[in-house]
Amino acid sequence: MTHIEKDLAALRRALGLTQGELAHKAGVTRETVSKVETGAVDPQLSTLVELARAMDLEFMVVPRALRTELEAFVRAGGRWLGQPPGVDAPPSVVDLILNNK
Question: Rounded CA gap, 96 and 37, in Å?
Fold first, then answer.
């Protein structure tokens, strides 16, 4: 199982969606969601895009050269590198998702 399958499953659960609910919103079958989440299939990019959009996300392909910096940005809670948490710091993407449940 790759990161994307685990991430999609974790996000679906964090949003309080069942596989069936996500499938309905994405226009795919529940079995498709299950197979994608368990790594039983190698999903088409269009399927991943629809699953992401159904969870109010935008699927984005990141150049390998920027991956480390982007992951650090996300781990920092969506704050600019070097910017301490506080009043002027923007909320992290994870905080926004979890607070909108």
Answer: 23
Please check whether residue 43 is in contact with residue 36, taking contact to mean a CB–CB distance below 8 angstroms: yes
For the entire predicted model, the pTM comes to 0.65
CA dist list (Å): 31 to 3, 11, 15: 20, 18, 19
Which regions of the chain are under pLDDT 50? none
What pLDDT, on a 0 to 100 scale, did the predictor assign at position 3?
78
pLDDT at 33: 97
Q: What are the structure tokens assigned to 48, written together?
A: 């991943």
Q: How far apart are CA 64 and CA 93, in angstroms?
A: 21
Superfamily name with CATH number, domain 3-54? lambda repressor-like DNA-binding domains (1.10.260.40)
CA–CA separation, 3 and 40 (whole Å): 14
Each domain of the chain, given as residue ranges in start order, spans: 3-54, 64-99
